[in-house]
Specification:
Number of strands: 9
Order of helices and strands: HEHHEHEEHHEHEEHEEHH
Helix content: 25-40%
Largest sheet: 7 strands, mixed
Bound molecules: zinc ion
Radius of gyration: 18 Å
Distance between the termini: 50 Å
Oligomer: single chain
Structural class: alpha+beta
Strand content: 15-25%
Shape: globular
Length: 261
């Protein structure tokens, strides 16, 4: 059953109670269907996030495309698969978007730095928007989604030096023509990223509450990376399913024994 619509100011209060501080750099992953109904949705949610962050804060959202066959255009390519809030966010006045198939969008004090050019490979390394949120000691907010949606854990994999990869490609414009670029990405089904929830909870490094009607989790990017890197150093394949569960994790496992060419 849907509850009553929650106002913008109530959501801002929920965010502050959770620990979103004025002036923070905040990377948000959302599932809007879990949050609604809220006032002026989904613009109301974005406005509430900006209200909680204040003038000096920075709001960041994933803004990537899933279309590998057409060149990414930061002005026109939709952000499919990351939810309607993310796809609305990059279109708003004043919001910057990085020019990369693994784009992120940002508004606020650190937006220029966060959306500065970044390499296609690796998409979520230190020199990427999630890497910059980490370096700026930013926070990660999961709204109605679990850590399986948390791209900062890919940064941890990159920093831990995991060897598994999956074959990927994107299309870029080169010499005026669409050109396919093949690369290998640290990737798998990502379901087991949910293990991070317990690791953070055990150390009191995560705050939980409600934002709108959704369960919300808030943690420092650096704490997410620390707990994940520690576990990856003990067991490189801790996030991969056992063989035979899904093709993504199987491909990643196989790449360790036989590196992808
Ligand atoms: Zn899997």
């Amino acid at each position: 059953m849907l509850g009553p619509a929650i106002s913008r100011s109530q959501i801002a209060k929920q965010l502050r109670d959770l620990g979103v501080g004025p002036g923070s750099v905040l990377l948000v992953h959302t599932s809007f269907s879990k949050i609604t109904p809220v006032e002026d949705a989904p613009q109301g949610l974005i406005a509430a996030l900006r209200l909680a962050l204040g003038r000096e804060g920075t709001l960041v959202m994933p803004s990537m495309t899933e279309d590998d066959d057409r060149p990414f255009d930061s002005k026109t390519t939709p952000c499919i698969g990351m939810g309607i809030v993310s796809d609305m966010f990059w279109r708003l006045p004043g919001v910057l978007r990085s020019d990369n198939p693994s784009a992120f969008a940002a508004v606020g004090e650190q937006a220029v730095r966060i959306t500065a050019p970044h390499p296609i490979d690796p998409p979520h390394g230190l020199d990427s928007p999630v890497g910059r949120v980490y370096e700026l000691d930013g926070q990660v907010l999961l709204l109605g989604v679990g850590h399986d949606a948390n791209t900062t854990i890919h940064l941890a994999e990159s920093l831990a030096g995991v060897r598994y990869r999956r074959k990927k490609y994107v299309t870029v414009v080169k010499d005026g023509k669409p050109t396919r670029v093949d690369y290998q990405e640290i990737d798998h089904c990502c379901q087991n990223f949910n293990l991070v929830d317990r690791w953070l909870e055990e150390r009191g490094l995560q705050r939980k509450g409600y934002v709108g009607h959704a369960e919300a989790r808030l943690a420092q990017s650096q704490n997410i990376v620390t707990v994940a890197v520690e576990q990856l150093r003990m067991n490189e394949t801790i996030f991969l399913h056992p063989k035979g569960v899904d093709v993504e994790c199987d491909e990643a496992r196989e790449s360790i024994a036989t590196p992808v060419q």
